[in-house]
């Protein structure tokens, strides 16, 4: 690699978004295994809120907003539970998500939304502290005002919503 990753401090910089621990870990917008499989072919354009675009060569964009215990514990477990489904969708393979898989995938999508949302310090957060802290185990309570829709993307790139983080990929 040789290139440094790009990272941003989140809106709540002192405490983990999901617990009372101090922030001491960086969460990847796209995990290493996703970047390995998608292979971005051009630099990534990053825009947080109303700031100007930053063009970065290294697709490893991280946000400093969680603690190691959450990041390496339940957050990692949730991603591991979704890898097969996410990989199938990324590779444009037909997949049927059973009801339990739909719930687990929706939790992962909301987790990523909560993390990405926190990157814009000027923005009022959609999810409050109670919702974020209730989202972690053991309750894994899905916030009441939340629906997750999944659809097929016909382009060839990857995007992180709320912000503008986009990179084309090789076909």
What does this structure look like?
A hairpin with a 6-residue loop joins strand 3 and strand 4. The chain is 32% helix and 18% strand. The relative contact order is 0.22. Helix 3 packs across helix 4. It has 5 helices and 7 strands, in the order E-E-H-E-E-E-H-H-H-H-E-E. The radius of gyration is 16 Å and the shape is globular. The strands form 2 sheets. It has a 4-stranded antiparallel beta sheet, with no helix packed on it. It has a 3-stranded mixed beta sheet with strand order 1-5-2. With 171 residues, the chain is of the alpha+beta class. The model has no long low-confidence stretch (mean pLDDT 80).
Shape: globular
User: How far apart lie the N and C ends?
Assistant: 21 Å
Largest sheet: 4 strands, antiparallel
Strands in their spatial order, largest beta sheet? 4-3-7-6
In N-to-C order, the SSE pattern is: EEHEEEHHHHEE
Number of strands: 7
Proportion of helical residues: 25-40%
Category by helix and strand content:
alpha+beta
Low-confidence residue ranges: none
């Amino acid at each position: 690699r040789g290139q440094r990753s790009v990272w941003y401090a989140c809106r709540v910089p002192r405490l983990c978004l999901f617990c009372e621990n101090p922030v001491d870990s960086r969460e990847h917008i796209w995990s290493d295994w996703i970047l390995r499989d998608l292979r971005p072919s051009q630099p990534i354009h990053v825009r947080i809120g109303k700031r100007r675009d930053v063009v970065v060569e290294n697709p490893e964009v991280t946000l400093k907003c969680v603690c190691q215990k959450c990041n390496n514990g339940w957050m990692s477990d949730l991603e591991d539970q979704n890898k097969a489904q996410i990989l199938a969708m990324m590779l444009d393979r037909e997949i049927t998500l059973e009801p339990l898989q739909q719930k687990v995938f929706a939790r992962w999508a909301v987790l990523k939304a909560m993390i990405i949302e926190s990157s814009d310090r000027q923005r009022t957060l959609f999810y409050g502290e109670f919702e974020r802290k209730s989202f972690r185990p053991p309750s894994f309570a899905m916030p009441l005002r939340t629906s997750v829709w999944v659809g097929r993307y016909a382009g060839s790139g990857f995007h992180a919503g709320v912000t503008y983080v986009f990179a084309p990929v090789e076909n």
